[in-house]
């Protein structure tokens, strides 16, 4: 899946959790979930589960450790999709 | 140094569904999931464990640890849980964090320290005294890693503090007190 397509779908997933709508609109690979999008830390786990469902992948706890930015999330999705 | 975390139980109930399939496996170690199964109030226990992990993680991060989303790696043991209070340990690798929690029907607040000593931290939870106007003589800032401090405008004194915000609640924890540190100004 193309990076931009993943990014677009990720934006939809993040929307209900992001408290900074402007930062969400202009998000790029460096955007951090907590620092930039002001997402509550407990919701990060919900986001991981949403990403698993949306892309039909499994994210183990080791991969999840780095899932704190848009770029890291995209990389995890791409790695998991090519490994299937 | 200290880490603290506050969970607004109402906001947690509205924003997060811990009963969702897979949620607990990503947050809790197997030994902690047993505590949920055996506990009378599963929801309270989930958020107590979460706040213990978060408080310990904040101290770990403050002390230079890399940012991680790995709640199951921080493993909690609760050795005392009664009267709306809990004491326990959170282990990550070889490091132990000692935690004290306050459990109310509205929120759960936990502080984590590296020592189990008698020094009691100052804790302010939605306290008018700590509200922004009070801080006119000092200011709250974060360093490049996002670690918070309070600084006195007049004296330049800087105090490491742990700040937490969730839903209707915000909490500040630190050792010593603001007045003694000259942080309130004259």
Summarize this, please?
The complex is a heterodimer of chains A (84) and B (186). By secondary structure, chain A is mainly α. Helices cover 60% and strands 0% of the residues of chain A.
Helices and strands in order:
The complex is a heterodimer of chains A (84) and B (186).
Chain A (H helix, E strand, L loop, with lengths): L2 H12 L6 H5 L15 H15 L5 H4 L5 H14 L1
Helix pairs in contact in A: 1-3, 1-5
Chain B lengths: L2 E6 H7 L7 H5 L2 H9 L3 H21 L12 E8 L2 E8 L2 E9 L3 E7 L8 E4 L12 E5 L5 E5 L5 E3 L1 E5 L2 E6 L12
Antiparallel strand pairs in B: 1-5, 2-3, 3-4, 4-5, 6-11, 7-8, 8-9, 10-11
Helix pairs in contact in B: 3-4
Explain how this protein is built.
The complex is a heterodimer of chains A (84) and B (186). Chain A is mainly alpha-helical. Chain A has five helices and no strands. In chain A, α1 packs across α3. The mean pLDDT of chain A is 94. Chain B contains four helices and eleven strands, in the order βααααββββββββββ. The longest helix of chain B has 21 residues, at 42-62. Chain B is an alpha+beta fold. A five-stranded antiparallel β-sheet of chain B has the order 1-5-4-3-2. Chain B has helices at 9-15, 23-27, 30-38, 42-62, and strands spanning 3-8, 75-82, 85-92, 95-103, 107-113, 122-125, 138-142, 148-152, 158-160, 162-166, 169-174. Chain B has one domain (3-174): 4'-phosphopantetheinyl transferase domain (Ribosomal Protein L22, Chain A, Alpha-Beta Complex), CATH 3.90.470.20. Chains A and B meet through α3 of A and α1 and α2 of B.
């Amino acid at each position: 899946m193309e990076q931009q397509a993943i990014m677009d779908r990720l934006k939809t997933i993040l929307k209900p959790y992001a408290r900074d709508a402007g930062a969400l609109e202009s998000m790029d690979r460096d955007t951090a979930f907590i620092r930039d999008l002001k997402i509550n830390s407990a919701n990060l786990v919900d986001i991981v589960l949403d990403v698993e469902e949306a892309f039909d992948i499994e994210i183990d706890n080791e991969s999840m450790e780095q899932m704190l930015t848009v770029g890291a999330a995209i990389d995890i999705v791409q790695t998991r999709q090519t490994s299937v | 140094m200290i880490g603290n975390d506050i969970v607004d139980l109402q906001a947690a109930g509205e924003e997060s569904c811990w009963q969702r399939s897979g949620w607990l496996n990503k947050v809790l170690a197997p030994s902690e999931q047993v505590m949920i199964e055996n506990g009378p109030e599963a929801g309270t226990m989930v958020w107590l464990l979460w706040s213990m992990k978060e408080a310990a993680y904040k101290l770990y991060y403050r002390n230079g640890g890399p940012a991680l989303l790995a709640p199951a790696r921080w493993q909690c043991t609760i050795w005392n849980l009664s009267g709306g209070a809990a004491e326990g340990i959170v282990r990550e690798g070889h490091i132990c964090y000692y935690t004290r929690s306050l459990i109310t029907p509205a929120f759960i607040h936990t502080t984590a320290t590296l020592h189990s000593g008698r020094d009691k931290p100052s804790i302010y939870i939605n306290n008018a005294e700590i509200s922004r106007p009070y801080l006119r003589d000092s200011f709250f800032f974060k360093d490049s890693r996002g670690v918070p401090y309070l600084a006195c405008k007049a004296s330049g004194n800087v105090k490491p503090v742990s700040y937490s915000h969730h839903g209707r609640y915000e909490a500040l924890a630190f050792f010593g007190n603001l007045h003694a540190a000259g942080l309130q100004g004259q």
